[in-house]
Amino acid sequence: MKKIINTTDAPAPIGPYNQAILTGNTLYTSGQIALDPKTGALIISDIVAETEQVMQNMKAVLAAADMTFENVIKASIFVSDMGNFSKINDVYGAYFNEETAPARETVEVANLPKYVNVEISMIAVK
């Protein structure tokens, strides 16, 4: 059985999907980009601010499922320029305890939705 997870504290989906699906104790999130959930504006002028907004959006989705970053077991990071990796990694890393950080891959792609620079999705378990 699946439970749809949606919160107004993260951007509304821009297509035929939900912010996350909870099945059993496992949460599968959709990718989050740097849309401000209150204004709908894209935060893309600076990669640090952009990544921070992505992580805040993800935090809201996790919270809607009564989870935190401590519940995350797997993260996928998609970037448009691997040259931004260290700045993205610094922001991302601030949300996790290094000793219990999730598994992760970071992949450079040709394009992302709305031509953003970073998109992150996660899997979390209660």
TrEMBL record:
Q: Where are the transmembrane segments?
A: none
An annotated GO cellular component: cytosol
Query: InterPro entries given for it?
Result: RidA (IPR006056), RutC-like_sf (IPR035959), YjgF/YER057c/UK114 (IPR006175)
Coiled coil region boundaries: none
One GO molecular function term of this record is: deaminase activity
Which PANTHER family would you find in this protein's record? 2-IMINOBUTANOATE/2-IMINOPROPANOATE DEAMINASE RIDA, PROTEIN HMF1-RELATED
Similarity field: Belongs to the RutC family.
> This chain belongs to which protein, by name?
RidA family protein
